[in-house]
Amino acid sequence: MTTYLLAGGGTAGHVNPLLAVADRIRERDPDAVVLVLGTKEGLEARLVPERGYELLTIPRLPFPRRLGPAALAFPGRFRRAVAQTKRYLLDRKVDVVVGFGGYASAPAYRAAHALGVPLAIHEANARPGLANRLGARYTRHVGVVFPQTRLRSSTVVGMPLRSEIEHLDRAASRPEGMEFFGLDRTKPTLLVTGGSTGARAINRAIFDGVDAILAAGWQLLHIAGNGSELPESPHPDYHILKYCDRMELALAVADFAVARGGSVTVCEFAAVGLPAVFVPLPYGNGEQWKNAADAVDAGGAILVDNAEFTPGWILSTLVPVLGDRATVERMAAAIASVGSRDGADRMTDLVLSAADVKSIR
Question: Sign (positive/negative) of CA torsion 128, 131, 133, 136?
Answer without folding.
Answer: negative
